[in-house]
Amino acid sequence: MIDSLSTTLSQLRNRYFWYGVSSLVLMFGAWETGSRSEQWFGFYTPSLGALPPPDLILSTLFHMIGTLEFWQNVWLSCVRVFVGFTAAVVLGVPFGLLLALNRFFHGIFFPPFEVFRPIPPIAWVPASIIFWPTQFLSIGFVTFLGAFFAIVISVIGGVRLIDVRYVQAARSMGSSRLDIFRRIIIPGVLPSIIVGAVIGIGITWQVVIAAELISGGGSAAGSSGGLGSFIWNAYVTGGPEAETHIIIGMFSIGVAGALSSELLRAAGKWVTPWLSST
Predict the structure, then answer these.
(1) Which CATH topology does 62-276 take?
(2) Between 226-237 and 186-216, two packed helices, what is the crossing angle to 10 degrees?
């Protein structure tokens, strides 16, 4: 409790923290001014003038967070991201280690991996809808692909960054392959796994929203739910609050993605304490 309080106080004394706060205040201030320029100053601001002002968005958001439908959409997107991302970590980390450490495995599986890696995850959406029996599985598969390739590439790069002299020294002292793997390879590759996971979770949020947009189709009967469908339905339905709902959905995605990345970074500091101490 005391440590967390001291960390918070030290962060509040950090000038770079206040730089970030100032940039956000300036951004929303410019947005508010641009949105209301015609009302306040008598001239129209291109782009910003077409957006609803932040105070209107906040008032709508405060009303919306009290509804069950909004949190159901947030929950559905979070579950899909969690399932797809967890599967990507569980399968991607050992797959990347095998590609990096086993020449036979690398020779067989790396060429097809490189062929599939440049294909955007969004391009898999139509195929996944066809081949998977439910929307949950099809969207989960696409979100899995979004994080899988980033994690595998990070793991391969992390293994290659390990100084080979550590391995040679361990072998000269009689260490077994299992000991080298546990005490050198795993600690050495952990920072790269965290970096790949942070990149992967960001891609996963982008992919899940696009998959919900496409698979939902904008119709109430075929809607897959989630923040992507929330944005699409607001666009299709139209109405005076359509733009406000779209922006709320966009900011909800941004906040959820930022929180996910921060949680992973915090987990990374916990599993790699030797990095924070240097």
Answers:
(1) MetI-like fold (1.10.3720)
(2) 30
